[in-house]
């Protein structure tokens, strides 16, 4: 619990302990997890998941996202890159750079994603994220985000061993630095990366200058992980520079920093690195002494605090030090100690093999006992399963039978209902047919009566009026006789048209057009000064019921009569257009009509009102429209389905 206790971490832990409520404690935990590069991994693991638990309980979206980032950092520290990427993905999805309240979390999560990609050596994916981040940060003038991610782009170029490219990015990042203390963390990282770039470019003086500044800044920042990396690079630069003592000191400092942030396995790796450094720098005695120091064994509980003594009782770790020691004795030419060390290596390997064999035997015995118990449990479970299966089978059969009965009953009811429905529909059909037959018979009877009775009487009146001589009558009687003759002729014509319509089962548009021609021929005798014609544009002929045909003929007849009486036209045209939507237009070229409402529709006059009523009853559209140059067009057209 005492490892990785920097002043910053101590202060943040103190804030957690002093927090009065869960909300305040949660914020303190998230701030502590921001020190993920310095915290002991176990400490980070505890507080990151504790923060996630509290954030979900609090229900605050921002705190939940920040806690998730802390958990992702924990996975990153343990080397679980895939888990870190999977954890950070929803955070990125839930936050947008365009939303001011979410922008800071978005920038933080996106940068973490790039770092996790880099840890898995997925450098192209990391660069894609970083380039996008820099562009977005430039849009919102966030210089800290710009500088931080430009530095990371430069560090990836260093991984690709492209020092010139890296120095370009790093110098661009350095150009954004100011004296503001908020830049100190990224300033330290830029200096360390610049030192590496100059080292790879064989410019050692610049490398030494920047590594010293970087180490100093990281010490002030108390970033232990980055400080250890900086010390490692400083050791390499100083060794190449010829400063062996400085290189050794930096490497030892690195090991001390590592001890506070990693477990014992990582310490061994760092110790082996120091031993290899001694061997490379031809300091074999130091390497031997360091190996012997690391090979001490004893009771951990007997080591007094503050003595700084390290004990290595783990046989696998001791084997690694024995191998390094044997290498030293061989290089030194000490055959006796080399042989003794080899014997220790063989003994350690044999002991490990025996331990592994005993462990394997114990595991086999344990597996056997476990298997016996599992077999017993399996047999018991099998019996229970069989009983459950029988019960389930019985229930299933009962359910299936119930379902079958239900569907049979429902099908029976549906068939009965269908029979009743069909019977009702058949009765309705018979009723409709009977009504239609009655209407048809009545229509034929009315037509016959009109022909036999009214038609005969009207024809007789017209014939008798023709016989009367008007020479001996006064002017008043002559006029009355002439008017009576005209009315009788009109009545005969109207009866003829009515009988013509009622006598047919159906009438086509062509038949109606032909009848209109007959009507115009009768009318020309009374209006010799008006030219009358019928224009036919009938593609697909249309059949109309006799009642509708009669209404249509009456509407057109009324429109023609109005035109010749009132328009003052010298030309009248009836246009008949057939097809899926048919149309009949009566067009005059006279003075036009003045008493119109919207869209040319007539609003007064009994004859015109009758025309509209007939069209409405039949489901047609009728309109009165102006004609260019003067005149009126009465248009009757069928409505679209």
Describe the structure in brief.
By secondary structure, this protein is mainly alpha-helical. 73% of the residues lie in helices and 6% in strands. Among the domains are: 1-138, Alpha Horseshoe (Serine Threonine Protein Phosphatase 5, Tetratricopeptide repeat); 505-638, Heat Shock Protein 90.
Question: Can you walk me through this structure?
Answer:
There is one protein chain. This protein is mainly alpha-helical. It has helices at residues 7-18, 22-33, 41-58, 61-77, 81-94, 100-119, 123-139, 143-159, 163-174, 184-200, 204-221, 224-241, 244-259, 264-280, 284-294, 315-332, 335-467, 475-502, 509-524, 546-566, 606-618; strands at residues 507-508, 531-537, 543-544, 571-577, 583-588, 620-626, 632-638. Among the domains are: 1-138, Tetratricopeptide repeat domain (Serine Threonine Protein Phosphatase 5, Tetratricopeptide repeat, Alpha Horseshoe); 505-638, Heat Shock Protein 90 (2-Layer Sandwich), CATH 3.30.565. It is 73% helix and 6% strand. The strands form 2 sheets. The protein has a 5-stranded mixed β-sheet with strand order 2-4-5-7-6, with helices on one face. The radius of gyration is 54 Å and the shape is elongated.
């Amino acid at each position: 619990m005492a490892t990785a206790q920097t002043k910053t971490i101590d202060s943040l832990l103190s804030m957690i302990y002093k927090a009065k409520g869960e909300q305040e404690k949660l914020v303190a935990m998230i701030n502590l997890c921001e020190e993920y590069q310095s915290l002991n991994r176990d400490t980070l693991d505890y507080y990151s998941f504790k923060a996630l638990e509290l954030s979900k309980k609090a229900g605050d979206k921002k705190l939940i996202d920040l806690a998730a980032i802390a958990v992702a950092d924990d996975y990153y520290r343990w080397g679980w890159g895939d888990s870190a990427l999977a954890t950070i993905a929803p955070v990125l999805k839930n936050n947008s750079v365009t939303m001011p309240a979410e922008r800071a979390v978005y920038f933080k999560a996106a940068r973490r994603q790039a770092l996790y990609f880099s840890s898995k050596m997925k450098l192209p994916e990391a660069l894609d994220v970083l380039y996008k981040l820099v562009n977005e940060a430039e849009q919102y003038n966030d210089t800290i985000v710009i500088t931080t991610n430009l530095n990371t782009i430069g560090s990836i170029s260093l991984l690709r061993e492209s020092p010139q490219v890296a120095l370009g990015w790093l110098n661009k990042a350095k150009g954004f630095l100011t004296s503001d203390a908020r830049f100190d963390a990224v300033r330290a990282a830029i200096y360390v990366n610049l030192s590496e770039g100059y080292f790879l470019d064989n410019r050692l003086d610049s490398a030494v200058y920047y590594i010293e500044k970087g180490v100093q800044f990281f010490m002030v920042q108390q970033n232990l992980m980055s400080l250890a990396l900086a010390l490692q690079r400083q050791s390499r630069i100083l060794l190449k520079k010829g400063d062996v003592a400085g290189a050794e000191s930096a490497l030892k400092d690195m090991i001390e920093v590592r001890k506070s942030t990693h477990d014992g396995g990582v310490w061994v790796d760092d110790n082996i690195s120091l031993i290899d450094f001694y061997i490379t720098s031809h300091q074999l005695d130091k390497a031997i002494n360091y190996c012997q120091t690391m090979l001490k064994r004893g009771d951990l509980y007997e080591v007094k605090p503050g003595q700084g003594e390290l004990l290595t009782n783990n046989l696998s770790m001791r084997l690694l030090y024995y191998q390094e020691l044997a290498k030293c004795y061989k290089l030194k030419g000490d055959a006796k100690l080399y042989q003794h060390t080899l014997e220790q290596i063989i003994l350690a390997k044999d002991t490990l093999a025996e331990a592994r064999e005993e462990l394997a035997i114990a595991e086999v015995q344990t597996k056997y006992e476990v298997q016996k118990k599992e077999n017993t449990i399996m047999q018991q479970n099998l019996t229970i399963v069989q009983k459950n299966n029988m019960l389930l089978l019985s229930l299933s059969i009962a359910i299936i039978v119930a379902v079958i009965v239900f569907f049979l009953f429902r099908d029976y009811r549906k068939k009965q209902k269908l029979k009743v429905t069909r019977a009702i529909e058949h009765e309705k059909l018979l009723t409709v047919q009977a009504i239609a037959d009655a209407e048809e018979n009545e229509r034929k009877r009315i037509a016959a009566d009109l022909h036999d009775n009214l038609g005969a009487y009207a024809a007789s009146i017209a014939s008798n009026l023709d016989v009367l001589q008007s020479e001996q009558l006064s002017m008043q009687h002559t006029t009355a006789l002439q008017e009576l003759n005209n009315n009788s002729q009109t009545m005969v014509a109207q009866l003829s048209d009515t009988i013509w319509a009622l006598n047919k089962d159906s009438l086509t548009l062509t038949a109606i057009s032909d009848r209109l021609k007959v009507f115009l021929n009768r009318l020309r005798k009374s209006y010799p000064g008006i030219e009358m014609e019928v224009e036919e544009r009938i593609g697909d002929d249309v059949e109309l019921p006799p009642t509708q045909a009669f209404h249509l003929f009456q509407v057109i007849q009324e429109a023609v009569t109005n035109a010749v009486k009132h328009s003052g036209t010298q030309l009248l045209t009836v246009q008949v257009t057939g097809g899926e939507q048919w149309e009949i237009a009566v067009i005059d070229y006279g003075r036009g009509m003045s008493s119109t409402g919207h869209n040319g529709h007539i609003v007064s006059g009994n004859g015109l009102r009758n025309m509209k009523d007939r069209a409405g009853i039949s489901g047609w559209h009728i309109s009165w429209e102006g004609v260019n140059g003067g005149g009126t067009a009465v248009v009757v057209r069928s409505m679209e389905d």
